[in-house]
Backbone:
């Protein structure tokens, strides 16, 4: 373990708008750094193998699984966690849509579901049902059977781009 | 309960949300793993790599040398400080065997993954590393992993002291099956193999035990569905008084039965905290979570029919592979599978034989459906098989054999008392909802093009809210409603929410009974120091008894507030009016009083206007469903369930002949869950259960090598449905209120697994019928379907 200490790396992360300078061990995952060092408990552990999506964050605007990302591989990066989705202390449009539609139940999968939706809707204002499936393919939800999630993504899209016709059929 | 104030103007029956539901969306919900305390230590558990082995020695000296390690213990050492874990449900109560279940293996390991040693260290990585330095000397033994082989005379014994591996044999016999079969025009035999699959909530289990130095007590933060009963088990296992233990079940990331107790880690973590004097946390890895199995059963069914397709008799002999003994309530699912026979069908002459068998696989725990899903899978596959043999349509055969809607309440041949239902009506509704006729046309068209579309139906009966005499499966539950001097409301319930929104349903009920804004209500669950004694969440009971008891308590508190209001307004109770949060006296001019003003007076004027009540404004009530009957009837049967929700399912799929892949095209369900408190939340639960059912029969499977070592270790191998795997689900309600519960509630949440699973399998077999393929061995994963197609084609 001592050997590892010599190999620690200094990284600079802007996490949900706040700058953090951290010295991390080479084997530390971004998930553990976020949860244990930065206190971002909104990011969850579901598998540690990259399959469930509960640990999803955005790294420089792109979704990534923090459980299989080594923190040391990010010397400088901007990270958005689920906790950064609020706007001026209010729920953002995606959160509001999931709230209104009862999109989730236990909410443990929320980081992946919400951030993947955010990534999708950022560049695609008219996603088709297949594109929604694809965008959320990396996220498991065990509670909902996905019906309410589809409904909520549709509603988020309408909320964000009221003038567009979405390709998603109303669920 | 005719005094109910709830009416159509209120919250009940509507899609309402309470504020607490926002926390997960903001990333602010606190799950058990989100608690960390000063001086926090972490545990890692070393597990047996063998399915069966003698443990000759455990040498922990290497682990103790690792810097940062605080405590290392073997199973033998732990046994000195602990009693065997008390069963959640003791098989002996049902005439079965009980084994001594230790938190860790002592001298002998009886399954792969059984805890053998534990390390506590300053961080989780150190603990894991140190565990790798423990030397265990095993002598591997021959393992038995198949339930039927485990019953052979010369099979190795899972519990060395037992005469055989049969945990329990239960016959459910009624009428004269032999005569029924002798007089039958047709007898149809069906063998159904249900594989091992599991609930796998997204949040794995987590326990964080905190030793409280000042009071010499333990607080356990736990992913627990049943905090009070868990507390009793811990008291007995840890040899501590129950009042020195507090359980806090925080927000839960899905439970589905897996977080019912009996797990070794619960008491282990408490012991580690006690011995180190510091908080100790353990977070289950997904690999560990996958050890917890469920559902594996093999059924040998025979159905006797007369000329017109009326079922005259049912025989079913089945073997449930429970894995190693466990204090968790998983084994009870085998009992329930038998008890729920013959499901929705009128047949009276039945002979069902339950063999609940222990093997050297890891143990079961409860899994949503709790065995009733296996009844549905076995029966509904057999019904379809019978329809094929009899040359009838599956719908026609079912309609002919369903219990009719005017036959309720209906006493089943196993002694259950079904409260209400309209099974035939539900099936018709589900068929309409999916446009059955259209699909029949599309199916014919597809076949002409060489594509294979299938349509399958199934029905599921789900007794919910169970109560078993002499166990902590109590059937009733309690709630406290406390109204403060400012008119805000705190509800404390003995039930818990595993992330299903039952707190919202309870808030809706209480808001209506009190006539207050739902935003003034806070519901607190899961803290044994705060909640009334309760039994937590299982068996789809939460709204029946949690909502029912909260309604009773709210009605009583409301009566108190009414009395004070009448006294303040100087009117008779009969002349008291309450509207939009204001009290006034009929025919009495003057300023109305707000609800809060009256509440304040109830607290502050105990010697004049509030003399008519006993302050504070707080009542605890229990709802004990009246239809549960534990005194045996003349056949020796009890009725352990108050409620029998039921549903019909239709599945449409297309099977790719080249790859064996099944694509689901549509699913419909007509669900009878009695009165619905919150339609959107109930629908959400039903869709979740359908996801379980279709994932279970199409892709989820836990496999072992020949020596009994588990091969399924991660989500690479355990394939759960993703969004694109679940088609659009059309849900319709076909509700018949339960006459014996508050507002006519039935359960919601358990139903859906077995019915959807069976409908999916029936649709696949329907699609493959033109190819001469019939598969009754689950799951219908692409390799298995492909192999069956190949075999059929080779046979041509
Ligand atoms: S925890 Fe990262 S994908 Fe599951
Ligand atoms: S809401 Fe529970 S896992 Fe998605």
Residues:
């Amino acid at each position: 373990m001592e050997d590892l200490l010599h190999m620690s790396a200094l990284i600079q992360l802007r996490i949900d708008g706040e700058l953090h300078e951290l010295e991390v061990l080479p084997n530390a995952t971004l998930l553990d750094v976020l949860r244990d060092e930065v206190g971002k408990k909104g990011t969850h552990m579901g598998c540690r193998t990259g399959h469930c999506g509960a640990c999803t964050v955005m790294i420089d605007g792109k979704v990534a699984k923090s459980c299989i990302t080594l923190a040391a591989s990010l010397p400088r990066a901007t990270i958005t966690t689920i906790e950064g989705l609020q706007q001026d202390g209010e729920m953002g449009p995606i959160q509001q849509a999931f709230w209104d539609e009862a999109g989730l139940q236990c909410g443990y999968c929320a980081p992946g579901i919400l951030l993947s939706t955010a990534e999708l809707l950022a560049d695609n204002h008219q996603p088709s049902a297949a594109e929604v499936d694809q965008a959320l393919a990396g996220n498991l939800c065990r509670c909902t059977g996905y019906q309410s999630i589809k409904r909520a993504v549709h509603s988020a899209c309408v909320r964000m781009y009221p003038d567009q016709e979405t390709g998603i059929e109303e669920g | 309960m005719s005094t109910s104030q709830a009416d159509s103007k209120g919250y009940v029956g509507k899609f309402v949300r309470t504020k607490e539901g926002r926390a997960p969306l903001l990333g602010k919900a606190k799950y058990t793993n989100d608690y960390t305390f000063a001086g926090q230590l972490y545990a890692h558990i070393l597990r047996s790599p063998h399915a069966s082995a003698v443990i000759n020695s455990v040498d922990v000296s290497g682990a103790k040398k690792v810097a940062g390690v605080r405590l290392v213990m073997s199973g033998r050492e732990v046994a000195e400080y602990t009693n065997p874990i008390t069963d959640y449900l003791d098989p002996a109560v049902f005439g079965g065997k009980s084994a001594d279940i230790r938190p860790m293996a002592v001298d002998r390991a009886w399954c792969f993954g059984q805890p053998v040693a534990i390390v506590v260290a300053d961080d989780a990585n150190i603990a894991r590393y140190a565990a790798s330095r423990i030397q265990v000397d095993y002598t591997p033994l021959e393992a038995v992993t198949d339930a039927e082989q485990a019953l052979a005379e010369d099979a190795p014994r899972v519990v060395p002291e037992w005469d055989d591996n049969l945990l329990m044999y239960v016959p459910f016999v009624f009428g004269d099956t032999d005569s029924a079969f002798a007089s039958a025009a047709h007898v149809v035999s069906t063998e159904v193999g249900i594989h091992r699959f599991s609930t796998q909530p997204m949040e794995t289990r987590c326990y964080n035990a905190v030793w409280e130095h000042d009071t010499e007590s333990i607080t356990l933060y736990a992913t627990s569905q049943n905090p009070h009963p868990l507390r009793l088990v811990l008291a007995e296992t840890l040899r501590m008084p129950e009042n020195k233990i507090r359980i806090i079940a925080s927000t839960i990331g899905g439970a589905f039965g897996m977080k019912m107790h009996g797990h070794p880690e619960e008491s282990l973590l408490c012991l580690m905290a006690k011995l180190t004097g510091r908080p100790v946390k353990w977070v289950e890895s997904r690999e560990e979570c996958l050890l917890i199995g469920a559902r594996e059963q093999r059924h040998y069914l025979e159905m006797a029919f007369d000329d017109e397709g009326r079922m005259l008799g049912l025989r079913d002999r089945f073997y449930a592979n429970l894995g190693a003994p466990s204090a968790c309530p998983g084994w009870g699912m085998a009992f329930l599978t038998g008890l729920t026979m013959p499901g929705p069908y009128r047949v009276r002459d039945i002979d069902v034989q339950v063999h609940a068998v222990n093997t050297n696989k890891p143990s079961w725990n409860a899994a949503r459906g709790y065995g009733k899903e296996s009844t549905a899978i076995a029966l509904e596959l057999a019904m379809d098989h019978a329809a094929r043999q009899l040359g009838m349509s599956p719908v026609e055969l079912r309609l002919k054999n369903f219990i009719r809607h005017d036959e309720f309440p209906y006493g089943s041949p196993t002694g259950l008392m079904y409260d209400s239902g309209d099974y035939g009506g539900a099936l018709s509704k589900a068929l309409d909802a999916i446009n059955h006729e259209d699909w029949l046309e599309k199916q014919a068209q597809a076949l002409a093009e060489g594509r294979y579309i299938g349509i399958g139906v199934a029905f599921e009966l789900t007794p919910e809210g169970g109560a078993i005499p002499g166990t902590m499966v109590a059937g009733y539950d309690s709630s406290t409603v406390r109204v403060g001097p400012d008119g805000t409301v705190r509800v404390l319930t003995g039930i818990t929410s595993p992330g299903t929104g039952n707190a919202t349903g309870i808030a809706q009920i209480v808001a209506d009974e009190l006539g207050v804004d739902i935003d003034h209500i806070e519901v607190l669950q899961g803290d044994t120091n705060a909640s009334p004694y309760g039994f937590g969440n299982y068996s789809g009971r939460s709204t029946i008894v949690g909502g029912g008891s909260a309604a009773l308590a709210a009605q009583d508190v409301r009566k108190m507030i009414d009395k004070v209001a009448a006294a303040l307004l100087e009117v008779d109770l009969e002349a008291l009016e309450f509207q939009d949060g204001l009290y006034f006296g009929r025919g009495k001019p003057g300023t109305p009083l707000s609800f809060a003003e009256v509440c304040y007076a109830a607290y502050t004027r105990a010697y004049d206007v509030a003399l008519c009540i006993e302050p504070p404004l707080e009542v605890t009530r229990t709802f004990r469903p009246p239809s549960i009957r534990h005194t045996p009837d003349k056949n020796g049967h009890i009725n352990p369930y108050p409620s029998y929700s039921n549903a019909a399912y239709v599945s449409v799929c297309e099977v790719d002949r080249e790859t064996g892949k099944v694509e689901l095209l549509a699913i419909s369900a007509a669900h009878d869950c009695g009165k619905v408190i919150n339609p959107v939340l109930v629908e959400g639960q039903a869709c979740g259960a359908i996801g379980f059912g279709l994932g279970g029969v199409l892709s989820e499977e836990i496999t072992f090598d020949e020596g009994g070592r588990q091969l399924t270790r991660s989500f690479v191998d355990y394939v759960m449905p993703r969004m694109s795997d679940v088609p659009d689900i059309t849900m319709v309600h076909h509700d018949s209120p339960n006459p014996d519960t508050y507002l006519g509630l039935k359960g919601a949440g358990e139903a859906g697994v077995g019915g959807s699973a069976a409908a999916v399998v029936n649709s696949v077999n329907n699609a493959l019928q033109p190819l001469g393929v019939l598969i009754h061995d689950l799951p219908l994963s692409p390799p298995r379907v492909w192999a069956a197609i190949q075999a059929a084609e080779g046979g041509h």
About this structure: The pocket of FE2/S2 (inorganic) cluster (ligand 1) is lined by residues A 45-48, 50-55, 65, 67 (CB under 6 Å). Residues 110-123 of chain A form the longest helix (14 residues). The beta strands of chain A are 9-15, 18-24, 56-59, 62-65, 76-80.
